[in-house]
Write a structure and sequence with these properties.
Distance between the termini of chain B: 29 Å
Oligomer: heterodimer
Main location (chain A): membrane
Strand content of chain A: under 5%
Radius of gyration of chain B: 23 Å
Helix content of chain A: over 70%
Number of strands of chain B: 1
Number of helices of chain B: 16
Strand content of chain B: under 5%
Strand order of the largest sheet of chain A: 2-3
Keywords (chain A): Membrane, Transmembrane, Transmembrane helix, Transport
CATH superfamily of chain A: MetI-like
Number of domains of chain B: 2
Radius of gyration of chain A: 23 Å
Family (chain A): Belongs to the binding-protein-dependent transport system permease family.
CATH architecture of the largest domain in chain B: Orthogonal Bundle
Subcellular location (chain A): Cell membrane
CATH class of the largest domain in chain B: Mainly Alpha
Protein name (chain A): Sugar ABC transporter permease
Protein backbone atom coordinates (compact mmCIF):
# COMPACT_ATOMS: atom_id res chain seq x y z
CA UNK A 1 0.00 0.00 0.00
CA UNK A 2 1.43 3.39 -0.91
CA UNK A 3 1.16 5.70 2.05
CA UNK A 4 0.71 9.44 1.96
CA UNK A 5 3.08 11.79 3.71
CA UNK A 6 1.30 13.38 6.65
CA UNK A 7 3.24 14.91 9.49
CA UNK A 8 0.07 15.42 11.51
CA UNK A 9 -0.01 11.65 11.98
CA UNK A 10 2.36 12.34 14.85
CA UNK A 11 -0.65 13.44 16.88
CA UNK A 12 -2.14 9.97 16.51
CA UNK A 13 1.05 8.40 17.75
CA UNK A 14 1.42 10.83 20.62
CA UNK A 15 -0.57 8.87 23.25
CA UNK A 16 1.55 5.79 22.68
CA UNK A 17 4.66 7.89 22.85
CA UNK A 18 3.71 9.46 26.17
CA UNK A 19 2.68 6.17 27.72
CA UNK A 20 5.72 4.23 26.59
CA UNK A 21 7.99 7.10 27.55
CA UNK A 22 6.53 6.94 31.06
CA UNK A 23 6.86 3.19 31.37
CA UNK A 24 10.09 2.67 29.44
CA UNK A 25 12.22 5.78 29.10
CA UNK A 26 12.04 7.01 32.69
CA UNK A 27 12.87 3.59 34.19
CA UNK A 28 15.61 3.09 31.66
CA UNK A 29 17.13 6.44 32.60
CA UNK A 30 17.10 5.33 36.24
CA UNK A 31 19.08 2.28 35.22
CA UNK A 32 21.55 4.42 33.29
CA UNK A 33 21.90 6.66 36.33
CA UNK A 34 22.70 3.80 38.65
CA UNK A 35 25.14 2.30 36.21
CA UNK A 36 27.48 5.29 36.39
CA UNK A 37 27.14 6.04 40.09
CA UNK A 38 28.19 4.51 43.37
CA UNK A 39 26.42 4.80 46.69
CA UNK A 40 27.21 4.31 50.37
CA UNK A 41 23.56 4.39 51.34
CA UNK A 42 21.59 7.41 52.61
CA UNK A 43 20.75 8.33 49.04
CA UNK A 44 24.20 9.76 48.51
CA UNK A 45 25.52 9.03 45.08
CA UNK A 46 28.96 9.49 43.64
CA UNK A 47 30.03 9.54 40.05
CA UNK A 48 31.65 6.25 39.22
CA UNK A 49 32.05 6.57 35.48
CA UNK A 50 32.38 3.33 33.62
CA UNK A 51 33.72 1.47 36.63
CA UNK A 52 30.74 -0.85 36.96
CA UNK A 53 30.84 -1.72 33.30
CA UNK A 54 34.53 -2.58 33.58
CA UNK A 55 33.86 -4.61 36.71
CA UNK A 56 31.07 -6.56 35.07
CA UNK A 57 33.02 -7.17 31.89
CA UNK A 58 35.96 -8.44 33.93
CA UNK A 59 33.89 -10.73 36.19
CA UNK A 60 33.12 -14.30 35.27
CA UNK A 61 29.62 -14.04 36.63
CA UNK A 62 28.07 -12.22 33.70
CA UNK A 63 29.99 -14.13 31.06
CA UNK A 64 28.96 -17.45 32.56
CA UNK A 65 25.32 -16.41 32.71
CA UNK A 66 25.54 -15.13 29.13
CA UNK A 67 27.11 -18.39 28.01
CA UNK A 68 24.36 -20.45 29.65
CA UNK A 69 21.76 -18.12 28.17
CA UNK A 70 23.10 -18.39 24.62
CA UNK A 71 23.33 -22.15 24.93
CA UNK A 72 19.78 -22.37 26.21
CA UNK A 73 18.39 -20.12 23.45
CA UNK A 74 20.32 -22.01 20.78
CA UNK A 75 19.11 -25.40 22.01
CA UNK A 76 15.45 -24.46 22.26
CA UNK A 77 15.48 -22.74 18.85
CA UNK A 78 17.14 -25.82 17.32
CA UNK A 79 14.41 -28.04 18.77
CA UNK A 80 11.32 -25.85 18.58
CA UNK A 81 11.62 -24.51 15.03
CA UNK A 82 11.96 -27.85 13.19
CA UNK A 83 9.48 -29.54 15.53
CA UNK A 84 7.00 -26.68 15.10
CA UNK A 85 7.23 -26.88 11.31
CA UNK A 86 6.84 -30.64 11.47
CA UNK A 87 3.73 -30.36 13.64
CA UNK A 88 2.26 -27.65 11.40
CA UNK A 89 2.71 -29.86 8.32
CA UNK A 90 0.79 -32.61 10.05
CA UNK A 91 -2.10 -30.50 11.30
CA UNK A 92 -5.51 -31.02 9.71
CA UNK A 93 -6.08 -28.22 7.19
CA UNK A 94 -9.65 -27.41 8.11
CA UNK A 95 -12.78 -28.59 9.81
CA UNK A 96 -13.62 -29.69 13.30
CA UNK A 97 -10.28 -31.33 14.04
CA UNK A 98 -8.34 -28.27 12.92
CA UNK A 99 -10.22 -26.22 15.52
CA UNK A 100 -9.63 -28.84 18.19
CA UNK A 101 -5.91 -28.88 17.43
CA UNK A 102 -5.72 -25.07 17.44
CA UNK A 103 -7.44 -24.75 20.81
CA UNK A 104 -5.52 -27.57 22.50
CA UNK A 105 -2.21 -26.41 21.11
CA UNK A 106 -2.76 -22.86 22.32
CA UNK A 107 -3.51 -24.04 25.82
CA UNK A 108 0.09 -24.08 27.12
CA UNK A 109 0.62 -20.56 25.76
CA UNK A 110 -2.07 -19.17 28.04
CA UNK A 111 -0.94 -20.68 31.29
CA UNK A 112 0.72 -18.18 33.62
CA UNK A 113 4.44 -18.74 33.51
CA UNK A 114 4.82 -19.58 37.16
CA UNK A 115 2.07 -22.20 36.79
CA UNK A 116 4.02 -23.67 33.86
CA UNK A 117 6.90 -23.93 36.27
CA UNK A 118 4.67 -25.48 38.92
CA UNK A 119 3.25 -28.01 36.46
CA UNK A 120 6.71 -29.24 35.51
CA UNK A 121 7.99 -29.04 39.05
CA UNK A 122 5.23 -31.45 40.05
CA UNK A 123 5.40 -33.54 36.86
CA UNK A 124 9.11 -34.21 37.27
CA UNK A 125 9.11 -35.09 40.95
CA UNK A 126 10.10 -38.66 41.66
CA UNK A 127 7.59 -39.11 44.48
CA UNK A 128 4.42 -37.50 43.09
CA UNK A 129 5.07 -36.64 39.42
CA UNK A 130 4.10 -38.87 36.52
CA UNK A 131 7.33 -38.24 34.59
CA UNK A 132 9.69 -38.54 37.53
CA UNK A 133 7.89 -41.58 38.90
CA UNK A 134 7.91 -43.37 35.53
CA UNK A 135 11.60 -42.64 34.93
CA UNK A 136 12.40 -43.78 38.44
CA UNK A 137 10.51 -47.03 37.98
CA UNK A 138 12.34 -47.58 34.68
CA UNK A 139 15.55 -47.40 36.64
CA UNK A 140 16.73 -44.09 35.22
CA UNK A 141 18.10 -41.83 37.90
CA UNK A 142 16.45 -38.48 37.46
CA UNK A 143 16.56 -35.63 39.93
CA UNK A 144 16.27 -32.14 38.56
CA UNK A 145 17.18 -30.43 41.82
CA UNK A 146 20.47 -32.28 42.23
CA UNK A 147 21.65 -33.37 38.84
CA UNK A 148 22.91 -30.78 36.35
CA UNK A 149 21.96 -32.72 33.22
CA UNK A 150 18.49 -33.54 34.54
CA UNK A 151 17.92 -29.89 35.44
CA UNK A 152 18.86 -28.74 31.94
CA UNK A 153 16.75 -31.42 30.28
CA UNK A 154 13.77 -30.51 32.46
CA UNK A 155 14.06 -26.80 31.67
CA UNK A 156 14.47 -27.46 27.96
CA UNK A 157 11.63 -29.98 27.73
CA UNK A 158 9.46 -27.53 29.66
CA UNK A 159 10.23 -24.75 27.21
CA UNK A 160 9.58 -27.05 24.25
CA UNK A 161 6.28 -28.02 25.83
CA UNK A 162 5.41 -24.39 26.50
CA UNK A 163 6.37 -22.73 23.22
CA UNK A 164 6.60 -25.21 20.34
CA UNK A 165 2.92 -24.58 19.68
CA UNK A 166 3.71 -20.94 18.95
CA UNK A 167 6.08 -21.90 16.15
CA UNK A 168 3.60 -24.51 14.93
CA UNK A 169 0.71 -22.02 14.89
CA UNK A 170 2.74 -19.48 12.95
CA UNK A 171 3.98 -22.06 10.45
CA UNK A 172 0.39 -23.30 10.12
CA UNK A 173 -0.81 -19.79 9.35
CA UNK A 174 1.90 -19.51 6.71
CA UNK A 175 0.86 -22.83 5.17
CA UNK A 176 -2.77 -21.76 5.08
CA UNK A 177 -1.88 -18.77 2.93
CA UNK A 178 -0.45 -20.90 0.10
CA UNK A 179 -2.87 -21.00 -2.85
CA UNK A 180 -3.86 -24.41 -4.14
CA UNK A 181 -2.58 -23.56 -7.59
CA UNK A 182 0.95 -24.01 -6.26
CA UNK A 183 0.24 -27.56 -5.16
CA UNK A 184 -1.51 -28.36 -8.42
CA UNK A 185 1.47 -27.10 -10.39
CA UNK A 186 3.75 -29.23 -8.24
CA UNK A 187 1.49 -32.22 -8.86
CA UNK A 188 1.69 -31.72 -12.63
CA UNK A 189 5.47 -31.50 -12.37
CA UNK A 190 5.40 -34.67 -10.28
CA UNK A 191 7.41 -32.98 -7.57
CA UNK A 192 8.37 -35.13 -4.61
CA UNK A 193 7.06 -34.41 -1.10
CA UNK A 194 10.44 -33.04 -0.14
CA UNK A 195 10.54 -30.71 -3.15
CA UNK A 196 7.07 -29.41 -2.40
CA UNK A 197 8.28 -28.59 1.08
CA UNK A 198 11.61 -27.14 0.01
CA UNK A 199 10.44 -25.01 -2.92
CA UNK A 200 6.83 -24.15 -2.10
CA UNK A 201 6.06 -24.45 1.60
CA UNK A 202 9.35 -23.32 3.13
CA UNK A 203 9.72 -20.09 1.07
CA UNK A 204 6.08 -19.22 1.72
CA UNK A 205 6.57 -19.78 5.44
CA UNK A 206 9.79 -17.76 5.57
CA UNK A 207 8.09 -14.55 6.69
CA UNK A 208 6.15 -16.01 9.59
CA UNK A 209 9.05 -18.24 10.54
CA UNK A 210 11.21 -15.16 10.96
CA UNK A 211 8.61 -13.75 13.34
CA UNK A 212 8.54 -17.07 15.17
CA UNK A 213 12.30 -17.14 15.52
CA UNK A 214 12.38 -13.49 16.57
CA UNK A 215 9.70 -14.01 19.24
CA UNK A 216 11.21 -17.26 20.48
CA UNK A 217 14.66 -15.74 20.62
CA UNK A 218 13.51 -12.64 22.51
CA UNK A 219 11.37 -14.54 24.97
CA UNK A 220 13.88 -17.30 25.63
CA UNK A 221 16.54 -14.68 26.17
CA UNK A 222 14.44 -13.05 28.90
CA UNK A 223 13.21 -16.28 30.46
CA UNK A 224 12.87 -15.92 34.19
CA UNK A 225 9.79 -17.35 35.84
CA UNK A 226 9.67 -20.92 34.58
CA UNK A 227 13.22 -22.05 35.41
CA UNK A 228 13.10 -19.99 38.59
CA UNK A 229 10.08 -21.94 39.83
CA UNK A 230 11.40 -25.34 38.76
CA UNK A 231 15.08 -25.20 39.62
CA UNK A 232 15.54 -21.81 41.28
CA UNK A 233 18.61 -21.37 39.08
CA UNK A 234 20.24 -24.49 40.48
CA UNK A 235 21.77 -26.94 41.04
CA UNK A 236 24.51 -24.47 41.91
CA UNK A 237 24.29 -21.92 39.14
CA UNK A 238 23.63 -24.43 36.38
CA UNK A 239 20.35 -22.94 35.21
CA UNK A 240 20.91 -19.35 36.33
CA UNK A 241 20.11 -17.51 33.13
CA UNK A 242 20.64 -13.80 32.59
CA UNK A 243 17.31 -12.62 34.02
CA UNK A 244 17.56 -14.85 37.08
CA UNK A 245 21.07 -13.63 37.76
CA UNK A 246 20.02 -10.02 37.26
CA UNK A 247 17.06 -10.23 39.63
CA UNK A 248 19.27 -11.95 42.19
CA UNK A 249 21.74 -9.09 41.93
CA UNK A 250 19.28 -6.19 41.79
CA UNK A 251 16.47 -7.21 44.13
CA UNK A 252 18.20 -9.88 46.17
CA UNK A 253 21.56 -8.34 46.95
CA UNK A 254 20.60 -4.78 46.04
CA UNK A 255 23.88 -4.23 44.19
CA UNK A 256 22.45 -1.36 42.20
CA UNK A 257 25.52 -0.24 40.28
CA UNK A 258 26.67 -3.60 38.93
CA UNK A 259 23.05 -4.68 38.34
CA UNK A 260 22.37 -1.55 36.31
CA UNK A 261 25.51 -1.98 34.23
CA UNK A 262 24.50 -5.62 33.74
CA UNK A 263 20.99 -4.52 32.70
CA UNK A 264 22.23 -2.13 30.08
CA UNK A 265 24.60 -4.61 28.49
CA UNK A 266 21.91 -7.30 28.62
CA UNK A 267 19.42 -5.01 26.89
CA UNK A 268 21.97 -3.99 24.27
CA UNK A 269 22.73 -7.60 23.38
CA UNK A 270 19.02 -8.34 22.90
CA UNK A 271 18.58 -5.14 20.92
CA UNK A 272 21.48 -5.92 18.62
CA UNK A 273 20.40 -9.46 17.82
CA UNK A 274 16.75 -8.46 17.46
CA UNK A 275 17.70 -5.60 15.15
CA UNK A 276 19.38 -8.10 12.84
CA UNK A 277 16.26 -10.28 12.85
CA UNK A 278 14.05 -7.26 12.30
CA UNK A 279 16.07 -6.05 9.32
CA UNK A 280 15.94 -9.47 7.72
CA UNK A 281 12.21 -9.62 8.41
CA UNK A 282 11.34 -6.24 6.89
CA UNK A 283 13.47 -7.11 3.85
CA UNK A 284 11.46 -10.31 3.46
CA UNK A 285 8.28 -8.25 3.70
CA UNK A 286 9.48 -5.95 0.95
CA UNK A 287 10.49 -8.86 -1.25
CA UNK A 288 7.01 -10.31 -0.95
CA UNK A 289 5.58 -6.93 -1.87
CA UNK A 290 3.64 -6.46 1.31
CA UNK B 1 -8.43 -41.63 8.20
CA UNK B 2 -7.45 -38.25 6.83
CA UNK B 3 -10.59 -38.15 4.72
CA UNK B 4 -12.84 -38.57 7.69
CA UNK B 5 -11.10 -35.82 9.63
CA UNK B 6 -11.49 -33.31 6.82
CA UNK B 7 -15.18 -34.07 6.35
CA UNK B 8 -15.98 -34.14 10.02
CA UNK B 9 -19.03 -32.18 11.18
CA UNK B 10 -18.33 -28.55 11.78
CA UNK B 11 -16.32 -28.09 8.60
CA UNK B 12 -17.10 -24.79 6.94
CA UNK B 13 -19.08 -23.47 9.88
CA UNK B 14 -16.19 -21.42 11.20
CA UNK B 15 -17.38 -17.81 11.16
CA UNK B 16 -15.41 -15.35 9.08
CA UNK B 17 -13.62 -18.09 7.17
CA UNK B 18 -16.39 -18.91 4.73
CA UNK B 19 -14.96 -17.29 1.62
CA UNK B 20 -11.51 -18.69 2.23
CA UNK B 21 -12.92 -22.14 2.78
CA UNK B 22 -14.80 -22.01 -0.50
CA UNK B 23 -11.73 -20.79 -2.33
CA UNK B 24 -9.79 -23.76 -1.05
CA UNK B 25 -12.41 -26.34 -1.80
CA UNK B 26 -9.94 -28.26 -3.97
CA UNK B 27 -8.55 -31.15 -1.94
CA UNK B 28 -4.96 -30.81 -0.82
CA UNK B 29 -4.84 -33.91 1.30
CA UNK B 30 -2.87 -35.93 -1.18
CA UNK B 31 0.30 -34.15 -0.09
CA UNK B 32 -0.05 -35.15 3.51
CA UNK B 33 1.68 -38.20 4.82
CA UNK B 34 -0.62 -40.82 6.28
CA UNK B 35 0.98 -40.62 9.69
CA UNK B 36 -0.37 -37.10 10.29
CA UNK B 37 -3.04 -38.17 12.72
CA UNK B 38 -0.53 -40.25 14.67
CA UNK B 39 1.94 -37.36 14.83
CA UNK B 40 -0.75 -34.97 16.03
CA UNK B 41 -2.02 -37.48 18.58
CA UNK B 42 1.47 -37.91 20.03
CA UNK B 43 2.10 -34.18 20.09
CA UNK B 44 -1.22 -33.37 21.75
CA UNK B 45 -0.64 -36.15 24.26
CA UNK B 46 2.71 -34.58 25.10
CA UNK B 47 0.97 -31.21 25.58
CA UNK B 48 -1.93 -32.48 27.62
CA UNK B 49 -0.26 -35.01 29.88
CA UNK B 50 1.33 -32.48 32.28
CA UNK B 51 -1.94 -30.51 32.37
CA UNK B 52 -3.87 -33.69 33.08
CA UNK B 53 -1.49 -34.48 35.89
CA UNK B 54 -2.13 -31.07 37.45
CA UNK B 55 -5.92 -31.57 37.25
CA UNK B 56 -5.53 -35.07 38.61
CA UNK B 57 -3.61 -33.79 41.61
CA UNK B 58 -6.02 -30.96 42.26
CA UNK B 59 -8.79 -33.53 42.79
CA UNK B 60 -6.85 -35.59 45.30
CA UNK B 61 -6.36 -35.16 49.01
CA UNK B 62 -2.85 -34.41 50.20
CA UNK B 63 -2.68 -37.80 51.88
CA UNK B 64 -3.41 -39.51 48.59
CA UNK B 65 -0.94 -37.33 46.68
CA UNK B 66 1.91 -38.18 49.00
CA UNK B 67 0.70 -41.64 49.85
CA UNK B 68 0.04 -44.01 46.99
CA UNK B 69 0.77 -43.24 43.37
CA UNK B 70 -2.31 -43.37 41.16
CA UNK B 71 -3.08 -42.27 37.62
CA UNK B 72 -6.51 -40.96 38.56
CA UNK B 73 -7.99 -39.76 41.85
CA UNK B 74 -9.36 -42.73 43.81
CA UNK B 75 -10.69 -40.54 46.56
CA UNK B 76 -12.23 -37.73 44.49
CA UNK B 77 -12.42 -34.49 46.44
CA UNK B 78 -13.28 -30.90 45.63
CA UNK B 79 -11.95 -29.66 48.97
CA UNK B 80 -8.93 -28.01 47.35
CA UNK B 81 -11.16 -25.91 45.11
CA UNK B 82 -13.52 -25.17 47.95
CA UNK B 83 -10.64 -23.83 49.98
CA UNK B 84 -9.58 -21.43 47.25
CA UNK B 85 -13.08 -20.23 46.43
CA UNK B 86 -14.01 -19.55 50.04
CA UNK B 87 -10.79 -18.00 51.35
CA UNK B 88 -10.59 -14.29 50.41
CA UNK B 89 -6.79 -14.26 50.55
CA UNK B 90 -6.94 -16.84 47.74
CA UNK B 91 -9.76 -15.69 45.52
CA UNK B 92 -8.85 -12.03 45.82
CA UNK B 93 -5.68 -12.98 43.95
CA UNK B 94 -7.82 -13.87 40.95
CA UNK B 95 -9.87 -10.70 41.30
CA UNK B 96 -6.71 -8.56 41.50
CA UNK B 97 -5.21 -10.27 38.48
CA UNK B 98 -8.38 -9.81 36.46
CA UNK B 99 -8.67 -6.14 37.43
CA UNK B 100 -5.21 -5.15 36.27
CA UNK B 101 -5.40 -7.37 33.19
CA UNK B 102 -8.64 -5.73 32.05
CA UNK B 103 -7.28 -2.25 32.84
CA UNK B 104 -4.17 -3.00 30.86
CA UNK B 105 -6.12 -4.32 27.89
CA UNK B 106 -8.33 -1.22 27.76
CA UNK B 107 -5.41 1.23 28.07
CA UNK B 108 -3.31 -0.63 25.53
CA UNK B 109 -6.05 -0.73 22.94
CA UNK B 110 -7.10 2.88 23.48
CA UNK B 111 -3.64 4.24 22.76
CA UNK B 112 -2.64 1.63 20.19
CA UNK B 113 -5.64 2.09 17.85
CA UNK B 114 -4.85 5.64 16.64
CA UNK B 115 -1.13 4.93 16.52
CA UNK B 116 -1.60 1.78 14.47
CA UNK B 117 -3.83 3.74 12.08
CA UNK B 118 -1.13 6.38 11.66
CA UNK B 119 1.52 3.73 10.96
CA UNK B 120 -0.65 1.87 8.48
CA UNK B 121 -1.80 4.92 6.51
CA UNK B 122 0.78 7.67 6.66
CA UNK B 123 4.45 8.30 6.23
CA UNK B 124 5.84 10.80 8.66
CA UNK B 125 9.15 11.97 9.98
CA UNK B 126 10.86 9.14 11.84
CA UNK B 127 8.03 6.64 11.47
CA UNK B 128 10.26 3.64 10.79
CA UNK B 129 12.55 4.42 13.70
CA UNK B 130 9.59 4.97 15.96
CA UNK B 131 8.13 1.65 14.93
CA UNK B 132 11.36 -0.18 15.69
CA UNK B 133 11.74 1.69 18.97
CA UNK B 134 8.28 0.48 19.97
CA UNK B 135 9.32 -3.05 19.15
CA UNK B 136 12.42 -2.72 21.31
CA UNK B 137 10.14 -2.29 24.29
CA UNK B 138 8.62 -5.67 23.52
CA UNK B 139 12.17 -7.01 23.62
CA UNK B 140 13.09 -5.35 26.91
CA UNK B 141 13.63 -8.00 29.57
CA UNK B 142 11.20 -7.36 32.48
CA UNK B 143 14.07 -8.19 34.82
CA UNK B 144 15.82 -5.01 33.67
CA UNK B 145 12.77 -2.96 34.53
CA UNK B 146 11.73 -4.59 37.78
CA UNK B 147 13.80 -2.42 40.09
CA UNK B 148 13.33 0.96 38.32
CA UNK B 149 9.59 0.30 38.11
CA UNK B 150 9.49 -0.45 41.79
CA UNK B 151 11.22 2.84 42.58
CA UNK B 152 9.24 4.89 40.04
CA UNK B 153 5.86 3.67 41.22
CA UNK B 154 6.83 3.93 44.87
CA UNK B 155 7.90 7.53 44.41
CA UNK B 156 4.61 8.54 42.77
CA UNK B 157 2.60 6.63 45.36
CA UNK B 158 1.24 4.00 43.01
CA UNK B 159 2.96 1.02 44.60
CA UNK B 160 0.61 -1.87 45.33
CA UNK B 161 -2.21 -0.55 43.15
CA UNK B 162 -3.80 -2.24 40.16
CA UNK B 163 -3.08 0.69 37.88
CA UNK B 164 0.66 0.39 38.56
CA UNK B 165 0.74 -3.17 37.27
CA UNK B 166 -1.53 -2.24 34.35
CA UNK B 167 0.79 0.60 33.35
CA UNK B 168 3.89 -1.53 33.78
CA UNK B 169 2.46 -4.21 31.52
CA UNK B 170 1.83 -1.53 28.89
CA UNK B 171 5.58 -1.65 28.37
CA UNK B 172 5.28 -4.79 26.29
CA UNK B 173 1.55 -4.85 25.48
CA UNK B 174 1.26 -1.46 23.76
CA UNK B 175 3.98 -2.24 21.20
CA UNK B 176 2.40 -5.63 20.65
CA UNK B 177 -1.07 -4.15 20.16
CA UNK B 178 0.28 -1.54 17.74
CA UNK B 179 1.98 -4.27 15.74
CA UNK B 180 -1.01 -6.56 15.56
CA UNK B 181 -3.46 -3.76 14.74
CA UNK B 182 -1.15 -2.28 12.12
CA UNK B 183 -1.00 -5.67 10.43
CA UNK B 184 -4.78 -5.94 10.32
CA UNK B 185 -5.27 -2.32 9.22
CA UNK B 186 -2.92 -2.79 6.29
CA UNK B 187 -5.43 -5.24 4.89
CA UNK B 188 -8.18 -2.59 4.70
CA UNK B 189 -8.05 -0.73 1.36
CA UNK B 190 -7.28 2.96 1.63
CA UNK B 191 -10.12 3.77 -0.77
CA UNK B 192 -12.53 3.18 2.10
CA UNK B 193 -10.98 6.02 4.09
CA UNK B 194 -10.99 8.33 1.11
CA UNK B 195 -14.60 7.58 0.21
CA UNK B 196 -15.67 8.22 3.79
CA UNK B 197 -13.87 11.57 3.90
CA UNK B 198 -15.49 12.58 0.60
CA UNK B 199 -18.86 11.63 2.07
CA UNK B 200 -18.22 14.17 4.78
CA UNK B 201 -17.17 11.97 7.65
CA UNK B 202 -14.79 13.56 10.13
CA UNK B 203 -11.84 11.51 11.35
CA UNK B 204 -13.35 10.58 14.71
CA UNK B 205 -16.71 9.53 13.33
CA UNK B 206 -15.14 7.64 10.44
CA UNK B 207 -12.77 5.83 12.76
CA UNK B 208 -15.41 4.70 15.22
CA UNK B 209 -18.38 4.13 12.91
CA UNK B 210 -16.71 2.71 9.81
CA UNK B 211 -13.12 1.74 10.41
CA UNK B 212 -13.33 -0.02 13.75
CA UNK B 213 -16.09 -2.43 12.67
CA UNK B 214 -13.97 -3.33 9.63
CA UNK B 215 -11.04 -4.41 11.79
CA UNK B 216 -13.19 -5.86 14.57
CA UNK B 217 -11.41 -9.20 14.37
CA UNK B 218 -8.07 -7.43 14.62
CA UNK B 219 -9.20 -5.57 17.72
CA UNK B 220 -10.40 -8.84 19.19
CA UNK B 221 -7.08 -10.50 18.53
CA UNK B 222 -5.11 -7.56 19.94
CA UNK B 223 -7.31 -7.56 23.05
CA UNK B 224 -6.79 -11.27 23.42
CA UNK B 225 -3.02 -10.93 23.23
CA UNK B 226 -2.92 -8.05 25.70
CA UNK B 227 -5.08 -10.09 28.03
CA UNK B 228 -2.88 -13.11 27.63
CA UNK B 229 0.53 -11.49 28.10
CA UNK B 230 -0.68 -9.51 31.08
CA UNK B 231 -2.24 -12.63 32.57
CA UNK B 232 0.83 -14.82 32.28
CA UNK B 233 3.38 -12.28 33.48
CA UNK B 234 4.66 -12.69 37.03
CA UNK B 235 7.92 -10.84 37.62
CA UNK B 236 6.61 -7.28 37.27
CA UNK B 237 3.24 -7.89 38.87
CA UNK B 238 4.90 -9.53 41.85
CA UNK B 239 7.50 -6.78 42.24
CA UNK B 240 4.94 -3.98 42.10
CA UNK B 241 2.45 -5.36 44.60
CA UNK B 242 2.47 -6.48 48.20
CA UNK B 243 -1.02 -6.89 49.65
CA UNK B 244 -3.85 -4.94 48.05
CA UNK B 245 -3.18 -5.79 44.44
CA UNK B 246 -1.36 -9.08 44.86
CA UNK B 247 -1.88 -11.28 41.79
CA UNK B 248 -2.84 -14.92 41.99
CA UNK B 249 0.52 -15.96 40.60
CA UNK B 250 2.24 -14.43 43.62
CA UNK B 251 -0.37 -15.82 46.00
CA UNK B 252 0.48 -19.30 44.81
CA UNK B 253 3.90 -19.10 46.39
CA UNK B 254 2.13 -19.04 49.78
CA UNK B 255 1.51 -22.78 49.76
CA UNK B 256 5.22 -23.36 50.21
CA UNK B 257 5.46 -21.82 53.67
CA UNK B 258 3.26 -23.37 56.33
CA UNK B 259 3.72 -27.02 57.32
CA UNK B 260 5.27 -28.25 54.10
CA UNK B 261 3.75 -27.93 50.67
CA UNK B 262 0.01 -28.07 50.21
CA UNK B 263 0.23 -29.76 46.80
CA UNK B 264 -3.50 -30.21 46.32
CA UNK B 265 -4.33 -26.54 46.82
CA UNK B 266 -1.36 -25.49 44.71
CA UNK B 267 -2.55 -27.73 41.87
CA UNK B 268 -6.14 -26.47 42.19
CA UNK B 269 -4.95 -22.85 42.06
CA UNK B 270 -2.93 -23.71 38.97
CA UNK B 271 -5.92 -25.29 37.27
CA UNK B 272 -8.04 -22.23 38.01
CA UNK B 273 -5.45 -19.96 36.35
CA UNK B 274 -5.76 -21.99 33.15
CA UNK B 275 -9.54 -21.53 32.98
CA UNK B 276 -9.72 -17.86 31.80
CA UNK B 277 -7.21 -18.54 29.05
CA UNK B 278 -9.04 -21.62 27.91
CA UNK B 279 -12.30 -19.67 27.79
CA UNK B 280 -11.05 -16.75 25.69
CA UNK B 281 -9.03 -18.98 23.41
CA UNK B 282 -12.22 -20.60 22.19
CA UNK B 283 -13.51 -17.31 20.82
CA UNK B 284 -10.41 -16.36 18.90
CA UNK B 285 -9.32 -19.82 17.80
CA UNK B 286 -9.36 -18.98 14.10
CA UNK B 287 -7.31 -15.83 14.53
CA UNK B 288 -4.74 -17.05 17.03
CA UNK B 289 -2.17 -17.83 14.38
CA UNK B 290 -2.67 -14.50 12.64
CA UNK B 291 -2.33 -12.69 15.93
CA UNK B 292 0.88 -14.46 16.81
CA UNK B 293 2.19 -13.50 13.40
CA UNK B 294 1.47 -9.89 14.49
CA UNK B 295 -1.12 -9.63 11.73
CA UNK B 296 1.45 -10.47 9.09
CA UNK B 297 0.19 -13.60 7.40
Amino acid sequence: MNKTVNQKAWFLVLPVLVLVAFSAVIPLMTVVNYSVQDTFGNNQFFWAGLEWFEDMLASDRMWNALGRQLMFSAIILAIEVPLGIFVALNMPKKGFWASVCLVLMSLPLLIPWNVVGTIWQIFGRVDIGLLGYTLDKLGISYNYTQDLVAAWITVIVMDVWHWTSLVALLAYAGLQSIPDAYYQAAKIDQASRWKVFRFIELPKMAGVLMIAILLRFMDSFMIYTEPFVVTGGGPGNATTFLSIDLVKMALGQFDLGPAAAFSIMYFLVILLISWVFYTVMTNLDKRDGL
Amino acid sequence: MTDTTAKAPGAGTIPGKVTETQARAVPRRRFRPNGSAVVMAIYLLFLLLPIYWLINMSLKTNIEILGDFSLWPRDLTLANYAKILTDPSWYMGYVNSLIYVVMNTVISLAVALPAAYAFSRYTFLGDKHLFFWLLTNRMAPPAVFALPFFQLYSSVGLFDTHIAVALAHCLFNVPLAVWILEGFMRGVPKEIDETAYIDGYGFGRFFIRIFMPLIASGIGVAAFFCFMFSWVELLLSRTLTSVDAKPIAATMTRTVSASGLDWGVLAAAGVLTIVPGALVIYFVRNYIAKGFALGRV
